Fold this protein.
Amino acid sequence: MSSIRIPKLLKLKDYITLIGTTLGIIALICACLGLRELISLGFFLITITLGTDLIDGYIARKTNTVNEMGKQMDSLSDSLTFGIAPAILTFQAFKTGTLFDIVIIIGAMCFVFGAILRLARFNISKVPGYTGVPTPISALLLITYFYFNYFFAFGMGGNNYPFPLVTSYLIPIFMVFIAWFNITTYIRFGEKDRVIYVMFIIVAPLCPILGIIGILNPNFYISMVVSLFFLSSFILLLIVITRGFFLRVLKKEN
């Protein structure tokens, strides 16, 4: 297969995957530039890749074009869009300009390692369902956490208003825990877990829609309502993940 030309190996689903990869690269560039407006754009692009990740899988199943090439491409793309890019965007968003930034860097590295290890294990796993939290969910946690702070700060004083300092102190803790969520065997979801699927379908599309509001200079009240939505989504996602832990415990007892 290594001698086959790349265009012949690629299917429609693979081009959708490459679109997601492209958005992930642009998000990384936004992170490198470091302006809060561009960081927000970067997170917005990551929310779009949540959609491309669902679409390429759906097309693969409907066209019966699931193959090893696609699996490898999907994992490599996910490591960028749901691991590396969100981690760097988060560091840029919450860095304090003090030595504490080293702690945030460590948290970001743990987040990336958790995503990569989770994807690698998924590629070789033969067990149905999901062991550990899928990387799109872990990326969605960072997205909702960022936008909660983004809209709160915007409502309080615009794009130059600082995020609450406590959120910068908490973010490395969250990233380490999310990394553990990725790789742990104590959290397990069924292959067609309705609760986590519905939660993802509701929150993921609303993220880019509400993210656009930030570009439109919302007033104080709109900013606070949107901020509250993202905070609620972040908390609900944590509850759903914790539910995965209890599902495993109950299954073992039965």
Observations:
- The mean pLDDT is 85.
- The radius of gyration is 18 Å.
